[in-house]
Amino acid sequence: MPESIRRRAREDRDEAAPRGRRSDAIENDGGIFRKGFASLTELALSGVQVTACAVDLGSGKVLFSVDDHLSVPTASIGKVLLLIEVAARISARDGSSTESRPRPVRPGPGAEALSILNRTAGDEIADSGLWQHLQVPALPVSDLAALIGATSDNLATNVLLRRIGLDTVRARAESLGLRRTLLLDIVREERGPDDAPQLSVGSARELAILFGRLHAGTVVDETTSRLVRGWLSLGTDLSLVASAFGLDPLAHVEADHGLRLFNKTGTDAGIRSEAGVITGPQGGISYAVTMRFNDAELSGRLAVLDAMRVLGTDFLEYVY
């Protein structure tokens, strides 16, 4: 990893570290999301670092923001950038990005989507994901992407990154106009002094806009955006903001009571992060929320989870 990237990540980490004070920049357009606003303010006063942004999908108007310019650690959310690069390669190499071809939600039988990748000892990693618990030694690229979307699979992430390369993912993010949102490294059990200090960093504003663009089909092209949305709609982690939406964690690809969701979460010690899109009968929101907190006591973690659910309840009321 270039030293400039590593240095910038450390500077952003230090800048955004919790300081035991409330946010200096909480904006709540028109007084909506009042319960979430009050809950986040209480957390900020207790020393939790909060960054958040919510954007109306119809108008593009920022509805709610809390220090959304800061680049903060987002744990696994940076894997979305990897999925975008994978989808763009499938779209381009399988010829499915042309306007005249059908645009499936799932990849077709193209060569890139079905390329088989083997797991190696160097890729092995614990924590999130299913592949580490399976016997199969190799899987197609599209299946690995689905595992990442569904379970944030760490092993699948490392195998795909070995194939694609971090520099390529970084270049794709830059081409999308992302400056404060990066996937910095592979997934590691421990991070040494020569490793990136975080798996990924991101700003709430950039992430909310990126997810809005995925919804609109303008991330690279419509086919790429559809592929990424399809993988993310498999996500089984509805424990944070999305816990308020009442959806089945294991089956919400289709609309349920008029609600549709695709999201990505990030979880690490003292970090809870989520970005997503929720749409309903009355409209839609793209959002991103990250909280950094003292994880020494379970009560602190539970307070963060409660606040994220309260904010999700406000989002639900807005779209439903």
Automatic annotation (TrEMBL):
Pfam families per the UniProt record, alphabetical: Beta-lactamase2 (PF13354)
InterPro entries, per database record: Beta-lactam/transpept-like, Beta-lactam_cat, Beta-lactam_class-A
PANTHER family found in the cross-reference section: BETA-LACTAMASE, BETA-LACTAMASE-TYPE TRANSPEPTIDASE FOLD CONTAINING PROTEIN
Record's keyword terms, sorted: Hydrolase
Keyword Cytoplasm in annotation: no
Beta-lactamase class A catalytic domain ranges (all copies): 54-290
Protein's recorded name: Class A beta-lactamase-related serine hydrolase
Region (Disordered): 1-25
